[in-house]
Fold:
Amino acid sequence: MSQENFLAAPHHQPLKQSVVVVPDGTTCIEFARKVTEKNRQNEDWDESFFVCDVGWILDQYKRWKKELPRVEVYYAVKANSLQPVISTLAALGCGFDCASKNEIAMVLNLGASKDRIIYSHTCKFSSYITFAKEKGVYPMTFDNEEEIHKVKKYFPNARLVVRIRSDDKEARVTFGSKFGATVDYAKILIQKAYDLKMNVVGVSFHVGSGSPGLKSYETAIENARNLFDFAKEIGYNFDLLDIGGGFPATKFDESIYTFEHMANVVRESLDKNFPVGCGVKIIAEPGRFFPGGAYSLVTNVIGKRKITQDSVSYFIGDGIYNSFTHVLLENTSFQPVPLSKPCNKNPVSSTIFGVSCDGGDVVSPMTKVPEVEMNDWLFWSGEQSLLN
Ligand SMILES: Cc1ncc(COP(=O)(O)O)c(C=O)c1O
Structure:
């Protein structure tokens, strides 16, 4: 890594952070080591903290602009809602995909424009719809008839976007059983909304997170085209296409397809179905793509049990219900690197337990790590797709 801006964030106080400019070529692990060494004498200082490489976010943004210049970024806040990510992307002029009232309030507070937010949840609290109305956030998704009635009651001038189902079987996380109408049902919904005099303006989809296949984007874009044409026949003039997320963040995610691979397929398919000049605004809701490799985590060893000469278990100040939720949600395995230097010991079979009292809170069940001591620090790289 050779970015210039790093940021150390105390884990439980995300807004009390300091931005540090480091010499070019400094790695996150080197920076984390310096932070822990500086605080060595402070015995109260044992909470986990994040290191955010802001330069990584900027590089991802440049990559996006190069590959998909026609597709405007509406960052999916749910992926990582920490201030450095939101503020950086807001400063770059990105929009935001918010899934709740809190997310809308937070991005507005951090400098986002109300005109660049989509409320992307197909089943919303009535009170949140009212909040969106008060804040002037018009675009919002739906995939069922009840939602049309709800939005009509609380925000009749909202700009509705119908979400279609577009599961990709290869994706690690799919959304189809929870969100998205089939194309046939979407047609019924569009007709229903038309009869209710609601303003439907476009189509959205999400092919799934974590290495989705390429074909799914093509199919979803074709299905969206079909719905744009249908809508035109009944009297609408759709002008918004939202191609969702699913773009790979890190080398781990890119082991199957790189972002450039995916962008190539998406670009060609958009050019075919929604050519330049067609009058449709195209947005995407990339989530993990932006913070994915930017965030590393540093955890303190708060407990150690030496089981045998060659096997140890450790307790760390974090766990699968906090920063390591991907262990639960995506079956991801994580491998820490001890920060203590010099690290000349041989790797030992280690089990790393999370901080909670749940016996299942195991961050790394069987891993090989050079033996560390109480109060040493373990570094967990963002390249493993942590924290989003
Ligand atoms: C509606 C919606 N948009 C965007 C995203 C971001 O997806 P990804 O992190 O795969 O880019 C998600 C993830 O849950 C989502 O539910």
